[in-house]
Each structure stands twice: as C-alpha cells, then as structure tokens.
Design a protein that fits this description.
five-stranded mixed sheet, Peroxisomal Thiolase, Chain A, domain 1, 10 helices, 2 domains, 332 residues, binds coenzyme A, alpha/beta, 13 strands
Length: 332
C-alpha cells in the first residue's frame, strides 16, 4: 500500500502595483513591441516599499488554507520556495509559519530558483509518502524586483513579484501499482515528480553576489540565448520523461501549467507535446516571470476560474538557474 499526496487547496497573491511595458520604456531603452514580441510580457506586479517576500507568501498561504477549509494548526510542514528570502537567515518560511499560526512541525526554505515550486512539490510529496508529514503548505514566493539590475534592459523587463501556494494532504492508502498496470495513474493526487540539475551551466543564469562571495545581495545576470536553448531542450525532455514514467500520452494531459518565463518557451513546449494552446495556462503576459511563484499563481487562476476541474490531469514543469529543471504530474 502507498500514500498519495492530494492537493486540497490553492491560493495566490499579487502586489497591487502594476508596471506596464510603456512605463518601463520611460526608464530604459526598450519598447512594448520588443518586450511583447520576444517574451509575450505586457506588464508585471511589483512589491511596495517595505512589502517583503514573507508578506506575499503569507497572503498566498492564508488563501490556500482557507480554500482547503482547514486550520493552520493542522499544518505540520511548511515549505517556502524562494530565491529572494527576506534575510540570509532565518528561513523566511519560519516567519510565515509563525504569522500563519502554525504551531506544529517544521518550516524551511528551498532554493531552486524558477524550478523552486516543482522541487518543493517533490519534497512535500516525499515527506507525505514517507509518513513524516500529513498536511503540507507549499509556497512559491518572490520579490524578484529586488535583485534586478534596473539598468540592464536584457533582464529587468522579464521578471515580476508574486506568490502562490497549495495545501497537500496525505490521502487514502491505495494499492501498489507499477507503470503499465491498470489503475497506476488513476486516483487523485501527485502521480510523480521528476527533478534534474546541472551545475556545469551555473554561468548561464546567476546572481553576482551573496553572503559568502561578496557579502552583498547582487543582481541577476543572464545569457538569454543560452538559457532559451537549454529551456526548450530540457523542458521537452522532462515532459517526455514524466509521461513515460506514468504510461501516458500527451493527449491524456488536460492542462499544462508551466513555469511562466517566456511565451515563446511555453509555445515550444506545447508544440512538442502536440497540445493545443487552449490547454496551456498562460499568465506570463500579466505577471511576467515570477520565478518560484509562477506555477502556483497560474494554477490558482485556472482553478478559480473553473478551467481546472476535479479529475483533470495537470502537468507542471519548470526550468531555472542552476540550471535546475523538473516536472510534477497531478490528478486534481
Ligand atoms: N529592449 C530592447 N532591446 C533589447 C532589450 C530590451 N529590453 N533587451 C535586449 N535588447 C537588444 C539587445 O541589446 C540586442 O541588440 P543588438 O542586436 O543591437 O546587440 C537585441 O535586442 C537582441 O538581443 P538578444 O539577447 O540576442 O535577444 P534574444 O532574441 O535572445 O531575446 C530574451 C532575449 C532574453 C528575450 C531571450 O533570449 C529569452 O527569452 N531567453 C530566455 C530568458 C529566460 O526565460 N530566463 C529565465 C529562465 S527561468
């Protein structure tokens, strides 16, 4: 017998301030046409002065807990995926834990940049499967605007701030089944997660600061074309790996909920899967790239507007600095 982790609630939060491409073009040498044409991004949300990653994370987590219909006291693990913690330490997750009123268990941050949410999904799922946690709040939250070089037009136009969260809970015990056996991919919950990283590609996307190297926070640096090339290849391979592990074909997927880096990358993955565009949840036009927050933000939007329904098969995938990449397959 084995335990499935079921997603029983979701929530998200975007800061109020919206910066359009037109506003950006008054600050740096860029245009709305260039940004939309290369990325699909039209605007991004930015955290207010004094509004921290923990504030965004808390609001998303509160909404996810309310949606799940549980109380914070039932949560025994809180995982926060972020690249922009409030401080070097303590873990921002511990601040959110206390503000939520979570009194049991543990809270920690994980860092896999834009792949943070799928990494967190794998960690949460494995804690639940191992019997070490029963109710997990998994948050992706970022104030990426704080680590951007606002004079570097090749990066500052791409990112935004926001947070999204899900609540996972240990479901009923179900009989063991291996890929290919009838029923192995039926039932609710996380069906599988798949993670990869390759530190040989650190230089493609990184921050040029940190506590141990420069004692400064630093700014995002990126080889855009190199990242693009790897994204297209790595995301196609992770999607195939996930489908094969579950004995499924692309047409079995009801919704692709990808990390929202760039519309051209989303289109390329959908094309490789043979998925029509209306099966892909897209928020990059309005949110830009919110790193670890982008998947739960997109998921929450599609759940609340009724696109994602119980029983739907959802494929989430992401790639980020490291490079890291991964995917999770969930029956809603
Ligand atoms: N506005 C106007 N022009 C810009 C610009 C901007 N915001 N940013 C760069 N340019 C210019 C460059 O200076 C260059 O000009 P030049 O030809 O005179 O030197 C030209 O546009 C082309 O730049 P290039 O970097 O070759 O563009 P590109 O086609 O590779 O597109 C990205 C750039 C960043 C949009 C694209 O590489 C990309 O999306 N990469 C993936 C990034 C990503 O998703 N990262 C996060 C992963 S989690």
């Amino acid at each position: 017998m084995r335990i499935r982790s079921e997603i029983i609630g979701c929530g998200s939060y975007l800061p109020e301030r919206v910066m359009s491409n037109a506003e950006l073009s008054t600050m740096i040498d860029t245009t709305d046409e260039w940004i939309v044409g290369r990325t699909g991004i039209k605007q991004r949300h930015l955290a207010a002065d004094g509004e921290l990653t923990s504030d965004l994370a808390l609001k998303a987590a509160e909404r996810a807990i309310a949606h799940a219909g549980i109380s914070a006291a039932e949560v025994d693990l809180l995982i926060l995926a972020t690249t922009t913690p409030d401080n070097t330490f303590p873990a921002t997750a511990t601040k959110v834990q206390t503000k939520l009123g979570m009194t049991n268990g543990a809270a920690f941050d994980i860092q896999a940049v834009c792949s943070g949410f799928v990494y967190g999904l794998a960690v949460a799922d494995n804690f639940i499967k191992a019997g070490q946690a029963k109710t997990v709040v998994l948050i992706g939250a970022e104030t990426f605007s704080r680590i951007l070089d606002w004079e570097d037009r090749s990066t500052c136009v791409l990112f935004g701030d926001g947070a999204g969260a899900v609540v996972l809970r240990a479901g009923e015990k179900i009989p063991d089944a291996s890929p290919g056996e009838v029923g192995h991919n039926r039932g609710r919950g996380v069906l599988s997660t798949h993670l990869h990283s390759d530190g040989a590609t650190n230089d493609l996307l990184y921050v040029d600061g940190g506590p141990s190297s420069t004692q400064t926070v630093g700014h995002v640096r990126m080889d855009g074309k190199g990242v693009f090339r790897h994204a297209v290849a790595n995301l196609a391979s992770i999607v195939i790996e996930t489908l094969e592990a579950n004995g499924l074909a692309p047409e079995d997927i009801d919704w692709l909920v990808p990390h929202q880096a760039n519309k051209r990358i989303l289109d390329s993955t959908a094309r490789k899967l043979g998925l029509p565009n209306d099966k892909v949840v897209v928020t990059v036009d309005r949110h830009a790239n919110t790193s670890a927050a982008s998947i739960p933000l997109a998921l929450d939007e599609a759940v609340r507007d009724g696109r994602i329904k119980q029983g739907d098969l959802i494929l989430m995938e992401a790639m980020g600095g490291g490079l890291t990449w991964g995917a999770g397959l969930v029956r809603w």
